[in-house]
Amino acid sequence: MYENTFPNKRFKHTLEFLQNHVSTSETILDLGVVNPFSEIMSQQGYTVENTKGEDLDIDTSTIENSEAEVVTAFEIFEHLLSPFTVLKSIKTDKLVASVPLKLWFSSAYRSKTDMLDRHYHEFEDWQFDWLLEKAGWKIVDRQKWTNPTKKLGIRPILRWFTPRYYIVYAERV
């Protein structure tokens, strides 16, 4: 089902990590609109509700009013000006979140055509850990993985050895 290509490798790692920490009997609020990975979660037996496309920097009402038992946030915090505000608004005690890691050899992602598809933050793992801890979360498990490409050049070679994605399972303190 998943081959070792983008985004399938990322989806495979994310699903395995999720399955290690979240039961299909638990309901999930996935931050962000319905997306290919929220559909994969549903296909795997998870009950998933997504936020509706509101600007989460301004409107956290869906998060605050959710009855879900787990919140997932896959590659969304880098798009927010204030991920701290969103993390504080989560009521559930369980969080599974992933972020792209800051790469010293590559600048932050910025779409030239889509004003919403920009990274305000690309974290180092310790920065994301501190953000979570300050927002009241204790990291229980974490994992990193690379994102190699089949292109030629220095940066593609470095991507074989340098982790690109970081995922955590955290519980409310």
Give the helices and strands, then pairings.
Layout: H1 8-21, E1 27-30, H2 36-43, E2 47-50, H3 61-65, E3 70-74, H4 83-89, E4 94-100, H5 125-134, E5 137-146, H6 154-158, E6 163-172
Parallel strand pairs: 1-2, 1-3, 3-4
Antiparallel strand pairs: 4-6, 5-6
Describe the structure.
This protein is an alpha/beta fold. It is built from six helices and six strands; from the N terminus they run αβαβαβαβαβαβ. It has a six-stranded mixed sheet, with helices on both faces. The protein has one domain (8-172): Vaccinia Virus protein VP39 (Rossmann fold, 3-Layer(aba) Sandwich). The chain is globular, with a radius of gyration of 16 Å. 28% of the residues lie in helices and 23% in strands.
Summarize the structure.
By secondary structure, this protein is α/β, with parallel strands linked by helices. The protein has helices at residues 8-21, 36-43, 61-65, 83-89, 125-134, 154-158, and strands at residues 27-30, 47-50, 70-74, 94-100, 137-146, 163-172. 28% of the residues lie in helices and 23% in strands.
